[in-house]
Design brief:
heterodimer; A: mainly alpha; 5 helices; B: alpha+beta; six-stranded mixed β-sheet; 10 helices; 6 strands
Amino acid sequence: MSDRTLRLALAVVALVGTGLATYLTYVHFDEGALICTTGGCEQVQQSEYAELAGIPVALLGLIAYVVVLALVAWDTPLARTLTAALALGALAFSCYLVALQLFVIEATCVWCMVNDLLVVPLLAVLSVLRLRSAPATA
Amino acid sequence: MPPKPRVAKPKSTPPASGPKAPKRSHLALAIAGAVAVAAALIVASLVLAGGDDDSSGGTTGITTPTGLLAGIPQDDAFLGNPAADVTLIEYADLQCPICRQYSLDFFPSLVDEFVRPGNLRMEFRGLAFIGPDSEKALKFTLAAGLQNHLWDFQEALYQRQGGENSGWVTDELLREIGSSIEGLDVDQLFVDAERPEIAAQIAETAEQASEADVEGTPWFFVKIGNEEPYHIEPRSLDEFRAALNDALEG
């Protein structure tokens, strides 16, 4: 896969993630708008883990996606490294959030699961592939 | 995928000079950054969630619930003047943090401004969807309703709310709360909580909530006289006031 394709794919995945995180941030404040097929969305949204120091976790995700988009646009070796660092960090945090849903809260939110198990891992794989295939510009 | 040459080099080869060295160092840097980011987030999440438990579920003294509600009639799940034309129906889970927030931030003002003057009646409809602690808390709250102390009991429970399904609804806590409510027979409370009627009431309310399309808690309906209740979704005390004043003005 060419660097150009990887960059485009990263941007698309980050955009999808931005959409998801925007929706989850919105429903954090307006639960009436929550569409849920797993039945546990409210429980996850209302759990004590849904916020970090008063900031909704979904909003942190939204900020991270926006930063990734900015880094993809910036596109320097440092930006690629930072993108991979952010995406891999997000991947680890997503694993933690999935474990929380399954074993602590004992409820799953379908939107969170799509983000944690699909979008974030995809972002991590693409950002690492891009870092590895980038032209060496030490 | 990058093209050919990668196979040739054994893994143990030290990354000396050459085109791969910077990529490896970038990747190592990214992994180090990722570990730092993830560790910070996970530790913060664990510590802060645990911190909430301490502040809400700790053993700090409870304010006497009868202070806020003193002198206001309680009849099973109802609070306030039985002749009031407007009823605010609340679906709540006693483990739900937003229900607790409502109870602490909005409920006292609504009681003072609408219930105490006799204009508004409130009805509690308990749900137990969060888990086992919800169910236990709800059984005892409904049992307190049999002695017309449901509202005293639920307010005291919210003040002591702990982490979801952390086992915070202990017999000791329930006994302590029960003993703090004047006129409540605690031994009877423990007997009543296990009555099949209470379990049936919980199931019936869950059914009612499902039919009424209750999507979360707290979830509010306003009922005027014998009319069909309608859903309201106030997000601030002022929005509550506006919704209730609208209902009172008919």
